[in-house]
Structures are given as structure tokens and as C-alpha cells.
User: Which sequence fits this backbone?
């Protein structure tokens, strides 16, 4: 019998996998992209993934720390990403059981909504700090992130998969 | 789904309480950072933690470019050599003329009793990446306080001014580009010496001269250079070229839009200029001015004169 992706019995996650995925996401975020507004925020995406899958291991503390590192690395106001990521982690943990019920497409819709909410929080912070609205393309990033969701799920679950032979037993 | 038993007895505070806690922590940090600048120490430590990742992120691009240069053909090299040789010839003539002019200028300066200008020291730096922030225009270079970069130093490339160092960490510095909305630079029209201040145009990638009278003598294709009267930028560096002038009968001011001369959004190598011109100390400022650029200038001035 073929088991659907969300009902496979997975191996327990290793903390090292989580840390490596966050390091990789930060690295992708620090790459010199040409137009930043349309590139998805990889850290946010990986954070949502682990908050949905492992709400007991990855929570608001991790989100807040990652946000601070992102803020310092990009030279923006300290606390902007920290606030957005904390909210994102909260939403993911809150909705985690609901999200896991759906297939990849509907999951991605949920993710898009959450990423847009987080982007709006960052936007509000910047407007309060006296910046201008940078144009609608900033919402392309969250949408692109949501499109990447099935791929991210597949990639990040790879280390936890058992071989098909074991599944059959 | 993995099937770990739910920990009934070890839950910690409710998620909503945690969200409240972290959100207030973030908001407090935001206010502290935006209003009082107390958080700079914390920022320095966090930037040091992010440094290995930043280096690693730019490594693949360096690898690709080095592979590309390895496979460049013989013909390309010969052609490039030829081009560079003619360029070098032209430059050497310019350099001779420059030396003569410099000697003459120094002599004239001595005659009128002006202070002698010291050489501008430069630190070459490589651009690591652009700040991931669509609201401002910043880039990060791989030289920091350890290599002698100071906040306020101007940054230029081979074509002109790129921006100004606004924050210095141990190994990295943050450069605010001319096109950032909060960045201003005093300029002079090369043709007639008219002074103006160019402000960043934000997302358009252009500069704007503000407060120009509607009948000011300025034309399309006028070249703008630094005037040097602010004491931060050395005089005579190319800044921009005027591309559009809108004179409106209803408005007392002309809208002048210019394109930056330097590769503000491209190029990988820049020079940090450490201007060591001896300057008289700045007069005491009144308490009421809280202007950001002023504070920036003052910081730079302290560094420049106290030593």
C-alpha cells in the first residue's frame, strides 16, 4: 500500500538537521540577489516549516534570535525581523495541526497568508520609522515563498524518511 | 507525521503569552535602536555572528567568476591587453599633467597661506552583498574597524562617489548609497560652480537636487562634482549627471533629476577614502538640532580631529 506523504511514519528529527537548515537559509538570504523584493525570505520559510512540523523544538525563542541575526546582518532596525518572525512562529504553531490536514497546494495557500502577514508587520514598522512604501512588488516575495513550499517540505523531510522497504513492513 | 508522545507535564507558558513577551521585547529594541542608538554594542556582536555566513554566501559567486576567468580565451586576453595598454598610455600622460598641476596648486596654496592639503588615503574593499532591505539602499563591504575604516568615510569607485560608511563593525562595514532617501551630498555644477545639495531618490535609483531656484543656471548633461565644503567628501569627485529638469510656473523651485556617475548598484570593488585633511574644530552645536545627517557628520569630525 502506498502511503500519502503526510502520513508516512518518519524517523525522529535530529537537532543538527534543524540547525543546518537554518544556517543554509541564512546563507541563501545573505546571497547578493539582484532584486530583493521578489526573492522569497528563505529563513521565514524554513522557520514556518519547523514550527509547523516540530512546534515543541522550534518556537518563538528561535524565531526571535534568527530575526535579530537577520536584522544585524542587513543593517536594518534591530527588532524589525525579530518581531515579524515571532509573529510568524506563533501563527505557524497555532495553525500547525490545521495546516498538516491539507495537501501541498492548500498548505501553500496557508503559508502565503502567513508570510504576507509577517511582511505587513515589517512594512508597518518601517512606515512608523519614517520610510516610504517601497511598492507592491514586496508582496511577490511571500507569494514566491509559498510556491516553494512543496519543494521545501520535500527537501527538509528527506533526512527523516525511511527507505521504502522499511515502510512496507 | 511523527508520533512522539505529547509532553503533558512540560509545556511552558502558553504560545500567546510567549508571543506577547517576544513582541514587546522586539518593540522595546526597535524603540531603543531607532531613538537612542543604545543597541549598537548588541548589533556589533550579532554582526560578528553573521559574518561567517555572509562570507560563505558570497563564496559561490567568487568561485563562478574565478572559473570564468580560468576559461577566458587567448584572443580575449590579447585584446584586453591591447586595450589596457592604450588606456595606460593615456593615463600616464594625464598623471604627468596632474603632478605638474598639483605642484603648482601647492605652490599657489602656500602663497595665499592656506593649509596644505594632505594626501587622501584609500582602503580598497570588495562589496559582499546588498542589504536585504527594500526600504533603504545599503551595501556591505569586507573591510571594517580592524582595517581602519571609520564611520562617515566617503566611498567611491573608479567613476565617482558611491556613498558613505554609516556603520562600522569589526570586519564588515555598512555603506549607505547616494540613492538612499536619507543620504545627502553637497555638489557643485562643474560648468559654472553653482552649489547645490543632492538627495537620494529612493527606489528610482536617481538623485534629486532640492531647493534649486526655478531660474537657476543648470542644464541637461551638466556634470556634478563634490564641492568639498561639508568637510566629509573631498572636493572634485564626480557625483552625477543631470538628466531631467522640470521647471513649473506654479512652483518656485525647479525639479532636477540626475543619474549617479558611479556604479551605485553594480560593480564589485570600491575604495574607502580616509580624508585626513586637517580641519579647524567644528563650532559647538545647539542642543535642539537632532538632524541625522548632522549627527553623522559630527561623529566623523570627532574621529578626524581628536586623535
Assistant:
Amino acid at each position: 500500500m502506498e502511503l500519502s506523504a503526510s502520513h508516512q511514519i518518519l524517523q525522529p528529527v535530529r537537532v543538527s538537521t534543524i540547525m543546518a537548515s537554518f544556517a543554509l537559509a541564512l546563507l541563501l538570504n545573505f546571497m547578493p540577489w539582484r532584486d530583493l523584493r521578489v526573492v522569497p525570505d528563505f529563513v521565514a520559510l524554513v522557520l514556518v516549516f519547523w514550527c509547523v512540523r516540530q512546534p515543541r523544538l522550534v518556537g518563538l525563542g528561535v524565531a526571535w534570535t534568527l530575526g535579530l541575526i537577520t536584522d544585524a546582518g542587513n543593517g536594518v532596525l534591530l527588532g524589525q525581523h525579530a518581531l515579524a518572525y515571532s509573529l510568524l512562529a506563533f501563527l505557524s504553531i497555532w495553525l500547525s495541526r490545521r495546516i498538516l490536514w491539507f495537501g501541498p497546494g492548500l498548505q501553500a495557500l496557508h503559508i502565503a497568508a502567513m508570510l504576507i502577514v509577517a511582511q505587513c508587520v515589517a512594512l508597518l514598522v518601517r512606515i512608523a520609522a519614517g520610510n516610504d512604501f517601497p511598492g507592491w512588488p514586496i508582496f511577490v516575495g511571500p507569494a514566491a515563498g509559498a510556491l516553494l513550499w512543496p519543494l521545501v517540505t520535500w527537501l527538509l523531510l528527506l533526512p527523516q524518511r525511511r527507505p521504502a522497504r522499511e515502510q512496507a513492513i | 507525521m511523527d508520533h512522539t508522545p505529547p509532553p503533558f507535564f512540560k509545556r511552558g507558558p502558553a504560545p500567546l503569552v510567549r508571543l506577547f513577551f517576544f513582541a514587546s521585547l522586539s518593540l522595546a529594541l526597535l524603540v531603543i535602536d531607532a531613538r537612542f542608538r543604545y543597541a549598537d554594542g548588541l548589533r556589533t556582536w550579532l554582526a560578528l555572528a553573521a559574518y561567517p555566513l555572509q562570507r560563505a554566501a558570497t563564496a559561490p559567486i567568487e568561485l563562478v567568476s574565478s572559473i570564468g576567468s580560468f576559461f577566458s580565451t587567448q584572443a580575449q586576453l590579447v585584446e584586453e591587453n591591447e586595450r589596457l595598454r592604450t588606456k595606460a598610455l593615456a593615463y600616464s600622460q594625464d598623471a604627468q599633467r596632474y603632478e605638474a598641476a598639483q605642484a603648482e596648486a601647492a605652490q599657489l596654496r602656500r602663497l595665499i597661506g592656506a593649509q596644505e592639503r594632505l594626501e587622501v588615503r584609500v582602503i580598497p574593499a570588495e562589496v559582499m552583498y546588498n542589504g536585504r532591505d527594500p526600504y533603504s539602499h545599503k551595501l556591505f563591504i569586507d573591510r571594517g574597524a580592524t582595517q581602519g575604516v571609520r564611520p562617515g568615510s566617503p566611498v567611491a569607485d573608479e567613476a565617482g562617489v558611491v556613498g558613505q560608511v554609516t556603520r562600522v563593525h569589526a570586519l564588515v562595514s555598512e555603506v549607505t548609497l547616494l540613492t538612499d532617501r536619507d543620504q545627502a551630498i553637497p555638489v557643485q555644477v562643474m560648468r559654472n560652480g553653482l552649489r547645490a545639495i543632492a538627495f537620494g531618490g529612493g527606489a528610482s535609483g536617481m538623485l534629486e537636487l532640492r531647493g534649486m531656484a526655478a531660474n537657476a543656471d543648470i542644464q541637461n548633461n551638466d556634470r556634478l562634482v563634490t564641492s568639498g565644503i561639508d568637510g566629509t567628501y573631498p572636493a572634485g569627485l564626480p557625483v552625477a549627471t543631470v538628466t531631467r529638469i522640470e521647471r513649473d510656473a506654479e512652483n518656485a523651485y525647479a525639479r532636477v533629476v540626475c543619474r549617479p556617475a558611479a556604479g551605485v548598484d553594480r560593480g564589485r570593488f570600491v575604495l574607502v577614502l580616509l580624508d585626513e585633511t586637517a580641519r579647524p574644530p567644528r563650532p559647538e552645536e545647539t542642543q535642539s538640532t537632532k538632524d541625522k545627517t548632522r549627527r553623522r557628520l559630527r561623529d566623523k569630525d570627532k574621529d578626524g580631529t581628536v586623535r
Observations:
- The CA atoms of residues 148 and 183 of chain B lie 23 Å apart.
- Chain B touches chain A through 53 residues (CB under 8 Å).
